[in-house]
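Attaching the record inline, Q. Sequence:
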Amino acid sequence: MRGLYRNTRNNHAPFWGKKLMAPAWYKEDKMPKFFDQWNTRLGLESIKMRHMLEEYSSPDKDDQKRLASQKAEIQAYIGKSQAHEKARGMKDVYITDHTRKQERFNTLNAGEDQDFFKYAQSVAEFNATSTTPETSTQLEYSSKYKRGSLAQRMFDPLASAKRLSNGTLFVEVNEAELGDISEDRLRK
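Structure, as predicted:
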């Protein structure tokens, strides 16, 4: 009855199994592995206890033979346990043929599937149509605010941008537009 706290620590459970008590770490598939490893440790402890009892029951028998048989029994048990661990560890190993899997989408019903299909088709059609480079560099970004007004500069700063042939907006910025960019001001 002495040292109850110390005895609770000597339960021979795998150290990583203590994490399973926390809800964040608990996984249903980890419990069989935990119990399997725990049973392996308990089996080894029972063999050690049996060996200890044999030693105390017949202390003057042939020690060399007994020690050799005990060592062989423990090594056989550990070898069997390691083979079992290796076999169990290979169940999560998968071999892939590196072929691309069919793309899957996270839709909830057939209506969403149809909407997504229409969207993907419209994107493909848009990407297939290209404008000529001569006209695309001349096109400017249209804005609903009057060019140069405060509202345009605040809410639509890309109004002076030109659209390039690949669809991106191109804006030229000069130093006068940046204002005071001294190091002291930037630090503030």
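Residues 132-139 have pLDDT under 50 and may be disordered. Helices lie at 4-9, 30-57, 63-89, 110-128, 133-138, 150-155, 175-178, 183-187.

More tomorrow.
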